[in-house]
Write a structure and sequence with these properties.
Layout: H1 2-18, E1 21-26, E2 31-36, H2 41-44, E3 48-51, E4 59-61, E5 68-71, E6 74-83, E7 86-96, E8 102-107, E9 110-116, E10 122-124, H3 131-139, H4 156-167, H5 190-197, E11 203-217, E12 230-245, E13 252-269, E14 276-295, E15 300-313, E16 319-327, E17 331-340, E18 345-358, E19 363-374, E20 385-398
Antiparallel strand pairs: 1-2, 1-5, 2-3, 3-4, 5-6, 6-7, 7-8, 8-9, 9-10, 11-12, 11-20, 12-13, 13-14, 14-15, 14-16, 15-18, 16-17, 18-19, 19-20
Length: 405
């Protein structure tokens, strides 16, 4: 008995944990993201059970309260049907969507299928004498000769197969326009609807640290030895960034970032004091402004980004050199010492890719590879600076609080 009791509790918990599907409801003004509890065909026609973000209470809606709901690849629309001598509202499943939708209803008296007439009113398909085959052929403007070739049954899968046979392929556009459904529904593509059901943050903050390697070709022409024609330095990188959505149904964001690096070099050749010395002391703030596209499953995602970058030099006398004439035995002569400052503003371009792993709804870990080309660092005396960055960090996302209809 104890084992049976534990099993029942476990089953109940499993339903609570796994019984919800990410979906939406449609009220008189907007689509609202929420969790939907799938039900049997019979119950799904009468009620929709939902749970909104940051709440622990379930809410049950009837066809008189909302216009539509959906989850996964399933969508229901609140439509009026004739039942006996009465007209009632039920949630009808759209088994085919588009300009010529087909609806399915599981009622107490059996299954029903509906199409729309020229007035956008529901017309029930008739099973007797296979009349529904002719109805569908006419509905989808197929030649009458095709009807004898339709051999699928009057079931949900059978009607879908019949329509596929008539059309040659599944319909790709959704967006039911019917007077019975209340206000006109937005025309959304299947991909847009899927993206809409993904809960996307309205703002995300990222803090990262890592390593940036700098390569800066030099053309100083001051008599320095071979090998002193390029800076290669590494810096610990610290960065903060924010992502803001650009499009409603696409995982495309504007990525604004600020990062700090300090590149230091000290090249020497000769005795002490050195005959030649070349130094770099460069503290820089980078401001990449990019567009980021995110893809992949909900838990583990990838992203690519590209855009412009502006580097701002924080200090002066960034590069300096020493050339010492003479030697220890004959005596040292005059020393040539000179310093130059990098351009304060340095434009560039940047691109990269990375991976992100969600720890919870709002918190994720990410890692990223980035390459940047920066111009005008030392005008007429240097080439294009290259920056290669590897870093990792944590992301915190903020979601919009959904208002209950």
């Amino acid at each position: 008995m104890r084992k049976l009791f534990l099993l029942l509790i476990g089953s109940g918990l499993s339903f609570v944990i796994y019984g919800q599907e990410l979906g939406y409801i449609k009220n008189d003004s907007a689509y609202i993201s929420c969790d939907i509890y799938p039900q049997s065909d019979l119950k799904s026609a009468k009620t929709c059970i939902v749970r909104f973000n940051n709440t622990s209470n379930d809410i049950t809606y009837s066809p008189d309260q909302i216009y539509a709901y959906g989850y996964g690849k399933t969508d229901y629309y609140s439509l009026k049907i004739v039942s006996g001598n009465d007209t009632i509202k039920r949630f009808l499943e759209a088994i085919v969507q588009g300009d010529s939708p087909v609806y399915y209803l599981a009622g107490e008296d059996g299954i029903h299928f509906y199409i729309l007439n020229n007035k956008k009113e529901l017309v029930e398909l008739v099973e007797d004498n296979d009349a529904y085959k002719q109805q569908l052929a006419t509905y989808f403007e197929a030649p009458a000769e095709i009807v004898p070739r339709l051999h699928f049954g009057f079931t949900q899968s059978g009607v879908i197969q019949t329509i596929k046979f008539i059309k040659g392929s599944s319909l790709e556009i959704v967006g039911v326009r019917t007077e019975n459904a209340g206000p006109v529904q937005e025309a959304l593509s299947i991909k847009e609807r899927k993206r809409m059901r993904i809960k996307r943050p309205v703002l995300s903050f990222t803090a990262q640290s890592g390593i940036t390697s700098q390569t800066l070709p030099l053309d100083l022409k001051v008599g320095l030895p071979v090998g002193f024609d390029e800076f290669k330095a590494s810096s610990t990188t610290y960065s903060m960034s924010a992502d803001i959505p650009l499009l409603k149904y696409w995982p495309l964001t504007y990525h604004q970032e600020i990062s700090f690096n300090k590149f230091v070099n000290d090249y020497r050749r000769g005795s002490d004091p050195p005959d030649y010395q070349l130094i770099q002391d460069f503290s820089v703030i980078s401001l990449p402004a990019m567009v980021r596209y995110t893809f992949g499953p909900k838990k583990f995602t990838g992203f690519i980004n590209a855009g412009l970058q502006v580097d701002i030099a924080l200090n002066k006398n960034n590069i300096g050199w020493l050339i010492l004439s003479g030697n220890a035995s004959s005596g040292y002569g005059a020393a040539t010492i000179e310093y130059m400052s990098y351009s304060t503003i340095q434009p560039g371009i940047t691109a990269g890719f990375g991976l992100s792993y969600k720890l919870s709804k709002k918190v994720a870990l990410n890692s990223e590879f980035r390459y940047s080309s920066v111009f005008n660092v030392l005008p007429n005396k240097s080439g294009t600076e290259g920056q290669v960055t590897l870093r990792a960090g944590i992301v915190y996302s903020i979601f919009k609080t959904e208002k209950k209809p």
